[in-house]
Write a structure and sequence with these properties.
single chain, 126 residues, mainly beta, seven-stranded mixed sheet, globular
Length: 126
């Protein structure tokens, strides 16, 4: 898998705080593609966090983040965002941006996405 997307914005935050992650397209435009955020906590499997269709008109969230996280995209800037509010220690993980060029619907499994960033660490202290 080529690295055509790159995450930024991770860091250390206290419980209850907020962070905004960004995913930037590298060397191409992803205006027509489905995008998503996944995360992986130490010793755990990848978890679907949120996904968005090409226009931004349809968004989907994992149960654990519903009501706290918001996914959005700005196709003109070639950037996707994840606004994370009311963060909890269990949100601590490496967060990955992923791109799907094959489907028009938002998938929720790793296999649905072909291109991945290197990840950005989010640590929430209690």
């Amino acid at each position: 898998q080529g690295q055509l997307v790159q995450e930024s914005g991770g860091g250390l935050v206290q419980a209850g705080g907020s962070l905004r992650l960004s995913c930037l397209a590298s060397g191409h435009t992803f205006n027509s593609y489905v995008l998503a955020w996944f995360r992986q906590a130490p010793g755990k499997e990848y978890e679907f966090v949120a996904g968005i269709n090409w226009s931004g008109g349809s968004t989907y969230y994992g149960d654990s983040v519903k009501g706290r996280f918001t996914i959005s995209r700005d196709n003109a800037k070639g950037t996707m965002y994840l606004q994370m509010n009311s963060l909890k220690p269990e949100d601590t993980a490496i967060y990955f941006c992923a791109e799907d060029r094959r489907h028009s619907w938002v998938g929720t499994t790793r296999e649905d996405y072909e291109y991945w960033g290197q990840g950005t660490q989010v640590t929430v202290s209690s």
